[in-house]
Amino acid sequence: MNLSLILIPVDFSDCAAHGVAYAKKLTEKFNAECILIHVIDEAIARQISQYCKETLDKTKERLINQAHQAMRAFIDRNDAKSIVKDTIVSFGTPFQEISIKARELQVDLILMGGYGSRGKGQLSEIFFGSTVEKVVRLLPCPVLCVPYGWGEES
């Protein structure tokens, strides 16, 4: 198996941090590199824009700047500089953006946390599926879903 480039979607949650920790092990074993992607959900940005009474473009710009700062802090907090080749902040529907970037970059693996900052068991996930499930359905490359706490030593 050739594993040289891993895409890791992050939402800055503990579960995403656990995924990065797991990726460190894979990068050592396979001499691989990682690209971290954070997707700003357009639907949520629209709600924020309406609430703040500002244009969507202004909200988008503000959220992108905040995401870049959060990405740098996330990498530092998780001691991930050595494995991260690049970072991407994207805007749109998370599962679609992750899938598009994975195809564009021709990644060998997508590594995702089992649930993100919005938690688990939300009504929308019960009816519409999680981001992880949607990504798995769309991509021909392997998707490794690492549930939070999996693989930790007791």
From TrEMBL:
<comment type="similarity">
    <text>Belongs to the universal stress protein A family.</text>
</comment>
<protein>
    <submittedName>
        <fullName>Universal stress protein UspA</fullName>
    </submittedName>
</protein>
<dbReference type="InterPro" id="IPR014729">
    <property type="entry name" value="Rossmann-like_a/b/a_fold"/>
</dbReference>
<dbReference type="InterPro" id="IPR006015">
    <property type="entry name" value="Universal_stress_UspA"/>
</dbReference>
<feature type="domain" description="UspA">
    <location>
        <begin position="6"/>
        <end position="147"/>
    </location>
</feature>
<dbReference type="Pfam" id="PF00582">
    <property type="entry name" value="Usp"/>
</dbReference>
<dbReference type="InterPro" id="IPR006016">
    <property type="entry name" value="UspA"/>
</dbReference>
